[in-house]
Amino acid sequence: MWRGVMQVLTANRLSDGAVVYWAGDGAWSRRIEQALALDAAQAASAMAWALGDDRVVVAPYFVALAGAATPDARVRTRETLRARGPSVRVDYRTPAHADARRLGAGHVPV
Amino acid sequence: MYRYDEFDAAFVRARAAEFRDQVARRLAGELSEEQFKPLRLMNGLYLQLHAYMLRVAIPYGVLSSRQLRRLARIARVYDRGYGHFTTRQNIQFNWPRLADAPDILDELAEVDMHAIQTSGNCVRNVTSDHWAGAAPDEVADPRVWAEALRQWSTRHPEFSFLPRKFKIAITGAAHDRAAVQAHDIGLHLHSGSDGRVMARVYVGGGQGRTPFIAALVRDHLPAEEMFSYIEAVLRVYNRHGRRDNIYKARIKILVAALGVDAFAREVEDEFQATRREAPGPPSEEIERIAAHFGPPPFLDAPARSSSFEQARLDNKRFARWARTNTHPHRAPGYAIVTVSLKPISRDMAPGDATADQMDVVADLAQRFSFDEARVSHEQNLVLPHVRLDDLPAVWRALDEASLATPNHGLVSDIIACPGLDYCDLANARSIPLAQAIAERFDDLDAQESIGELKIKISGCINACGHHHVGHIGILGVDKRGGEFYQILLGGRADERAALGVIAGKGLAGEAIPDAIERVVTFYLGVRRDERERFIDALERLGPEPFEEALYASV
Q1: What are phi and psi of B12, to 5 degrees?
Q2: Cβ neighbours of residue B510 under 8 Å, at least 6 residues apart?
């Protein structure tokens, strides 16, 4: 975790490995837009919940935010792909983004 | 083809049942993730970026039509309708649910397949020449020895917890199509002066963070002694391999640290002991295995086929495909067919096949290729034994299934790892870059004119995309959260294996197709004639002028 930086908590769902985000109150969401932005104190509490929730999620970690639900530049490409799904085919996208066209060049420069 | 004996079948079924119990206990909360993770990895189940990934072993890349149909069924029923064939001749399913994994393993066990030893610090799936038993330049069939090695290495108690993973490749032809010198142990079979099958043994090859071409440690090892010799190599590795540092744990680091001569001497001393204690399978067992790989009942066909020749005259598309994707066979009247999994399209990743496509290839294998298909480490499929007379029918079926891209060995036949689109380890994406390069060279005439050119792309330093041994290698790196790519020039994975050299600074992804086009244009301008391949010209002139072309307008 980066102190002083707002962050979201993410993990993979145990049942299918899907990417999920901590939405507060014991809830996990598939959509990064619904992730709760956490300060340091909230982050510690959320991580404690996640580690105790290992029948639901695995491998929790924090993603630093540059803006509202936008991953910091240090991790942007990876976390954009985690949030949206593989960029190679529209039908491989996560449900929230399955109707999107190809990722714009601004997200991933290829 | 080899069929499991009772021992194999019972063992694989038992492992599937064991994993079913482990998954149930994990889902019930009786096992923690920390306890469960090594158990799932022992069964080939990884957790990747978006989902679980199941890596299924395809021993030495050989599949029956029944096995290929089963892989198609698994893709259709348990995944998203496709699978990804890898540079280790395996298949990966990218979206299985944890609860379904035991059912998938049961389905695999029914067709003599499994996912064991596709992860972990053990001897991994033995890889081989995808033209084995069909190539005209073959001296000895490597599948016989690969199968014996599979049996020897499966659950070998002494080599289940090596310092790091261990990869063995074997070829039996003059031209190395299995990249044996890029492996921990590479075996190149050849014919001894008395006609016996001998093995040239290379040790300490590998790619990744610190790449090495393997060193030749034995030139004339009688093939039947390879088991004792490999045991000796592994014992020396187990004794001295670095377990304290994951980056120095592969055998290539040990060979480099000890020096090739000292390493070879130590192996030789160990070999004198192991050949007495563990002499390898008796000759009857090798003969029993060899009986599974006898030549299929080829028809006594003429070397030329008038119907094939006529079809080439009648149809230019078929003629082009026949030029690029069919290859001479050791049996007169037959051909080897490469089924391209590299369409010039944004809809499929290199090495991907849909369930329907797998079924098509399985049907063709059953009908036209003595029930056999192969997976190449270059991420294509192969129909190894097709009659020349049948090639038009095979092509039509492949073409209807978008499997007849005429690009084998050409600039768009690109190896690409899953990269950051799927892989938890990757720094950058490989697949969209491969697609962009292929699109840049979508003119099939131009591709043929350029000739053989092997582009290999890895999304990280682990080098699953073999970038170190590409004529042009491309390595994805992370630069402040963005994707950049380093280019290497002059690598090759054949019997004259060499590592590519890094050419200057990394480029942004969108600059790569232009850079590749510039270097290819430069090659076309300097080659002596159409027979001088890209790699030949590069070796003749050195990498510097090619590097200059690469960066000409950057």
Answers
A1: -70, -40
A2: A105, A109, A110
- Determine the pLDDT at residue A106: 28
The beta strand positions in B211-267, using DSSP E, are: 215-222
Residue type, B377: H
Whether the CB-CB separation of B459 and B419 falls below 8 Å is answered with: yes
Residues whose CB is less than 8 angstroms from the CB of residue B76 and which lie 6 or more positions away in sequence, other chains included: B355
Substitution target in B49, B79, B95, B345 with the highest count of A β-carbons within 10 Å is B49
Nearest CA to B167 out of B197, B111, B124, B121 is that of B124
pLDDT of residue A93: 67
Res A98 pLDDT > 70: no
pLDDT in tens, A47-85: 999 999 999 999 999 998 876 667 776 678 899 999 999
In this prediction, residue A108 carries a pLDDT of: 28
Amino acid B242: pLDDT: 93
Contacts of B460 in chain A (CB under 8 A): none
- Taking contacts as CB-CB distances below 8 angstroms, the residues of chain A near B33 are 14, 54, 58-59
Q: Is A87 on the interface with B (CB under 8 A)?
A: yes
The pLDDT, as a whole number, for residue A69 is 64
The structure's pTM equals 0.95
The alpha carbon of residue B209 is apart from the nearest alpha carbon of chain A, in Å, by 21
User: Do residues B43 and B105 make contact, with C-beta atoms less than 8 angstroms apart?
Assistant: yes
**pLDDT for the residue numbered B482:** 83
What is the predicted pLDDT for the residue at B160?
A: 87
Task: Give the integer Cα–Cα distance in Å for B312 and B306.
Answer: 10
Which of A10, A57, A77, A90 to mutate: most B Cβ within 10 Å?
A: A77
Nearest-by-Cβ selection for B47 from A17, A74, A86: A17
Residue A107, pLDDT > 50, answer: no
Question: Which residues in chain B are closer than 8 Å to A77, comparing Cβ atoms?
Answer: 420, 428-429, 478, 481-483
Q: For residue B428, list chain A residues with Cβ-Cβ distance below 8 A.
A: 77
Q: What's the CA gap between B70 and B358, in Å, rounded? A: 9
Chain A nearest C-alpha distance from B263 (Å): 41
Q: Is A88 on the interface with B (CB under 8 A)?
A: yes
- In order, the DSSP letters of B484-520 are EEEEEES-B-STT-B--EE-SS-EEGGGHHHHHHHHH
- Closest residue in A to B420 (Cα) is A78
* Cα B446 to Cα A26, B317, B324, B455, B536, distances in angstroms: 58, 15, 13, 16, 19
In angstroms, the separation between the Cα of residue A29 and the nearest Cα of chain B is 14
Give me the pLDDT at residue A100, please: 39
Nearest to A19 among B50, B509, B512 (CB): B50
Task: Tell me what ipTM this predicted complex has.
Answer: 0.91
Inspect the interface and report whether the beta carbons of B27 and A55 lie closer than 8 Å: yes
The token duo for B1 is 């083809």
Q: Is A76 on the interface with B (CB under 8 A)?
A: yes
| Regions of chain B short of the pLDDT cut 70 | 554
- CB proximity list for B109: less than 8 A, separation 6 or greater: B9, B12, B13, B15, B16
| Spatial distance between the Cα atoms of B464 and B454, rounded to a whole number of angstroms | 15
pLDDT digits (tens, 9 = 90+) for B294-328: 999 999 999 999 999 999 999 999 999 999 999 99
* B456 and B516 Cβ atoms separated by less than 8 Å: no
Position B378 scores a pLDDT of 98
**How many contacts does A have with B, using Cβ atoms within 8 A?**
98
